[in-house]
Design a protein that fits this description.
- This protein is mainly α.
- The chain folds into two domains: 8-63, no CATH class; 71-127, no CATH class.
- The chain contains six helices and two strands; from the N terminus they run H-E-H-E-H-H-H-H.
- Strand 1 (29-32), helix 2 (38-47) and strand 2 (56-59) form a beta-alpha-beta unit.
- It is globular, with a radius of gyration of 18 Å.
- It starts with 7 loop residues before the first helix and ends with a helix.
């Protein structure tokens, strides 16, 4: 989740968004990095009863690498751009990068991972380009 600030409010919003997803069950453990905003956010969710008291927070730098690896492709594209002029420009550009990455990885219904022709026709269909 892209956020203008990495504070307690943003972390709590991220956790709420994840917990409200249809496929999410109440977690036993939450693995996060060393950001100082996570413990207060989890405490807030415990007091709001959004998160079970039994849910533990585990702050270990390398345990969330699987999640971070998904963003490696996006990071590789954003670094050469040498930053964005505004937050909204960054948000829009990164959403486009992520959408194209999802299509490339086959996370779109009806388009397989290695099917380049199918991916191209899907993009033509979305943008109304004649094949």
């Amino acid at each position: 989740m892209l956020s203008a600030k990495r504070d307690r409010k943003a972390a709590a919003r991220l956790f709420r968004q994840i917990l409200n997803a249809v496929h999410t069950q109440m977690p036993r453990v939450i693995n996060v990095g060393k950001n100082a905003a996570y413990p207060p956010a989890v405490e807030q969710l415990h007091t709001d009863k959004t998160l079970s008291k039994r849910t533990k927070l585990r702050q270990v730098k390398y345990l969330n690498n699987i999640v971070e690896q998904d963003h490696r492709f996006i990071k590789r594209l954003t670094k050469p751009s040498m930053g964005f002029h505004s937050f909204n420009t960054a948000r829009r550009t990164i959403k486009g990068f992520e959408a194209m990455n999802m299509i490339r990885k086959g996370q779109i219904q009806g388009v397989d991972k290695g099917d380049v022709i199918g991916q191209i026709s899907f993009l033509h269909q979305i943008f109304g380009v004649a094949s």
